[in-house]
Amino acid sequence: MIALKGITKRFGEHTVLDGIDLSLERGEIIVVIGPSGTGKSTLLRCINFLERPDAGQLKVGDLSVDAARAKNEDILGLRRRTAFVFQNYALFAHKTALENIAERMIVVEGLSKNDAHARAREILERIGLADKADAYPAALSGGQQQRIGIGRAMAAKAEVILFDEPTSALDPEWVEEVLALMKQLAAEQQTMIVVTHEMQFAREVADRVVFMDGGRIVEQAPPSELFTNPKDERTRSFLRKVLAGNAPAAT
Amino acid sequence: MQALNLDYMLGLVPILLGYLPLTLGMAAAGMVCALILSCALAVIRVSRLPVLNQAAQVFISFFRGTPLLVQLFLFYYGLPQFLSFLVSINGVTATIMGLTLHFSAYMAESIRAAITGIDRSQTEAAQSIGMTNAQTMRRIILPQATRVATPTLMNYFIDMIKSTSLAFTLGVTELMGATQKEAASSFLYFEAFLVVAVIYWIIVEALSWCQKRLEKRLNRAYQR
Ligand SMILES: Nc1ncnc2c1ncn2[C@@H]1O[C@H](COP(=O)(O)OP(=O)(O)OP(=O)(O)O)[C@@H](O)[C@H]1O
Ligand SMILES: [Mg+2]
């Protein structure tokens, strides 16, 4: 139900994505890992056209798009079927928590303000921030801001939510609450692609772990397999490095 | 050295205040038009629309690079020579036009700076949920940018009020024009111009006071 074929992206001379093929079933959770600068963020950004891929096909739900020929309506269509959670939250600073979540329903779906706010309140309940409805982002902790960021993505009722290192910018004390919310979404069968360095999360939640290096997918397998029995030398050396610097996750 | 004619000055105040609505009206009209035009110019500059961007650059450069008085004369006395439908342009309209074009050039640059100051990630977030560029501009970027730019825009408004006094050179009897006429008939130039100076001063001080309060409120915004 999500299928990427031959996704290629260059920045000038530098080929950042070199023909990525990846597909997901509904409800599947994929964790993408790999060294820095390897194109993980770029891959997510290509899926909803924050970056425009130079070539490749994308299929999300009922919409198929040829990247090289994508028209404005294709791009909007893709964006309306996907949602993005940013490393730095990227909340709308002039809107309250409630308004951040309701914005898409008002502007994109055309709901009335009342209906949108009612639905946004339900989402605030689900993410445990009902009491912060009227707070502006600047008055919230990093963890709360990121949970609002996830709530905004949930409001999209997207086919897939793309998470780009959602906990990397957080003080350690807030990481757990954000991961817990993501686990809750996983339990609700939300399809997601998560770029993260949280190996423990990958082990617990991922259906499949994808290891990327140099703009390509090197190997992909269920976590039990990829973490214990990586086939490629690059995967092994990457895992040695991160697990050494991340002792608790190695248990 | 003779003493100031205080009675004359006090008598002049209500007469001159009668022209205040015209002065403030021209400034308000100019400000509203300038806000719209400068937002459009700023958006064109920021989104680097081809051709329009270059045109906006030339426009801004010209209207910042020439005196307002020259621009007013150009519109009022100069343009009707070529554009016959402007023959009937009156001084008030010409003044509002001149103020609009002149000040929008300055205001566009302030708004542009404010727009580029908004974190780029908010634009991406808006796009990521499927908002169009126009929706992003209107609902996410401009509300924050105008807020950032408000103190500067208030300064331009204050400046604009003072600049309406140039309208008297186009034969408009506004605050300054009226003073000029009163002075010419009484020969009490110092008294008359002192009164009008104080009137301008009080208006500007009142606005500056509002500006400070507004700034305080804006600084507290988004903190709840
Ligand atoms: N807008 C851009 N212009 C030019 N080069 C870019 C741009 N965005 C990313 N790159 C380059 O593309 C490469 C891949 O970047 P990307 O951010 O996708 O990597 P990543 O795997 O997410 O890394 P990290 O783990 O550090 O987040 C990097 O070399 C980066 O410098
Ligand atoms: Mg990245």
Automatic annotation (TrEMBL), chain A:
This is L-cystine ABC transporter ATP-binding protein. It is a peripheral membrane protein. The lineage of its organism: Bacteria, Pseudomonadati, Pseudomonadota, Gammaproteobacteria, Oceanospirillales. InterPro entries: AAA+_ATPase (IPR003593), ABC_ATPase_HisP-typ (IPR030679), ABC_transporter-like_ATP-bd (IPR003439), ABC_transporter-like_CS (IPR017871), MetN_ABC_transporter-like (IPR050086), P-loop_NTPase (IPR027417). It is found in: Cell inner membrane. Residues 2-239 form the ABC transporter domain. It comes from Kushneria pakistanensis. SUPFAM superfamilies: P-loop containing nucleoside triphosphate hydrolases (SSF52540). Belongs to the ABC transporter superfamily. It comes from the Bacteria. One of its GO terms (molecular function) is ATP binding. Signal peptide: none annotated. Keywords: ATP-binding, Nucleotide-binding, Transport.
Automatic annotation (TrEMBL), chain B:
The keyword Iron-sulfur does not apply. It holds the Pfam family BPD_transp_1. Keywords: Amino-acid transport, Cell membrane, Membrane, Transmembrane, Transmembrane helix, Transport. InterPro entries: AA_ABC_transptr_permease_3TM, ArtM/GltK/GlnP/TcyL/YhdX-like, MetI-like, MetI-like_sf. It is a multi-pass membrane protein. It comes from the Bacteria. It is found in: Cell inner membrane; Cell membrane. Residues 20-208 form the ABC transmembrane type-1 domain. The chain crosses the membrane at residues 20-44, 56-76, 82-103, 156-176, 188-210. SUPFAM superfamilies: MetI-like. Belongs to the binding-protein-dependent transport system permease family. HisMQ subfamily. This is ABC transporter permease. It comes from Kushneria pakistanensis.
